[in-house]
Amino acid sequence: MASKAKIKAVTGMNDMLPGDSAIWTFFEDTVRDVATSYGYRPMRTPVLEPTALFTHGIGEATDVVEKEMYSFEDSLNGEKLSLRPENTAGIVRAAIEHNLLYDAPRRVWYFGPMFRHERPQRGRYRQFYQFGCEALGFAGPDVDAELILMTSRLWKELGIREVKLELNTLGEPAERAAHREALIKYFEAHLDALNETARHRLYLNPLRILDTKDPDMQQLVEAAPRLIDYLGEGSRAFLASLERQLERAGVDYVINPRLVRGLDYYSHTVFEWTTDRLGSQATICGGGRYDGLMEILGGKPAPCVGFAMGAERVLELMKEFGVHPTEPDCTVYVVHCGEGTLDPAVEVAEELRDLGVATIVHGGEASMKSQMKKADASGALFALIVGESEAAAGQVSIKPLRELPEKTAFSGQKTVPAEEAARMIFDEILVIDTKDL
Ligand code: ATP
Ligand code: MG
């Protein structure tokens, strides 16, 4: 028989395997709990959207839209579609489509896969996960501060240290327009020093030139006109208020005048959390205020602010700091061996699950000894043993698999009536603080 070719995953797209599930679950539980504790509600939008949503909503002269999008024409109906490279545009689209802001502003969060056709490397993938929050309809700067406080709390809860918060303001559109003109003049006077990308961006999106990582352009960019010098009273006050709130909350930051988002619908706050523990994939979270986006996407104008963090990078960083959550497969492992033992085994397992106790019934047939080995390997606290003699007597044996604290009733194996077993184990678990084990 001809051997079949193995089909592999798409380059840059990862499988999450069971061995990694504990850290992912910990991350997902933590971000959900923290977002919930600030009153944010979950929202989910499709991974596939009309391409126009992103060309309008992210902007043509950005890396994401210019060269990172998975776009295609649906061969069945000719629609132009893209896999979402980020989720803000989708959230805003949905907010407009469902008139979400009709009576009040909204705080929402999301978690899910994003897609960008980039060169895969550590911390940079073609499918990656983002957790993000959007505060829709809030003028700030109080909510800007709230979001930054939330991210700062998240690092603590996730066990991450030594991250740096960089902050900047993009001011108001009119202020940016004046700065933009000055920038173009400045760069026009130094055309020879611009690399190809910068020349391409000169009139499309000159602010983005400031963002360059090209070492040859650093000096030029350092000396460029600074937006901060073009800010009016209102923008200065906005930033000052945000700074005051961060200081009050004890969140350290540095102002980075070169931190930019090159699109017209951004205003005021931009921020990034960075680390020097992950090589060049240093940004773990980016956010900012996008007061103009609702209107650009056809909605009523509404001021908004949000952030997105890359889960893979955050997980890498957790591992750097020794965060390795583990998760037993179950709390009780039911071993059954011999004639008439499967039915009572399943019955007691279902009773345990009724009580919320994670229970595995050994699958298939095997010797008692090999099943006990599996029970041990599962990380369970108890093995529940149903042998032929137990089954015949309507009993089961409970065997602790870990050394349990003294206050517990099970110092060794105990045979009990089958109908009492689930409740007895449940009562035991209540008195065991798993942290003592
Ligand atoms: P970078 O400068 O690293 O390309 P970005 O500015 O493109 O990041 P954003 O669009 O602001 O990133 O996305 C928010 C966060 O999502 C990033 O800070 C990062 O943590 C994560 N992220 C972005 N692109 C990827 C990717 N290809 N793979 C993994 N994580 C990513
Ligand atoms: Mg990028």
From TrEMBL:
CDD domains, sorted: HisRS-like_core, HisRS_anticodon
Protein origin, superkingdom: Bacteria
SUPFAM superfamilies found in the cross-reference section: Class II aaRS ABD-related (SSF52954), Class II aaRS and biotin synthetases (SSF55681)
Catalysed reactions, as listed in the record: tRNA(His) + L-histidine + ATP = L-histidyl-tRNA(His) + AMP + diphosphate + H(+)
Subcellular location: Cytoplasm
Cited HAMAP family: His_tRNA_synth
Designated name of the protein: Histidine--tRNA ligase
Phylogenetic classification of the source organism: Bacteria, Pseudomonadati, Pseudomonadota, Betaproteobacteria, Burkholderiales
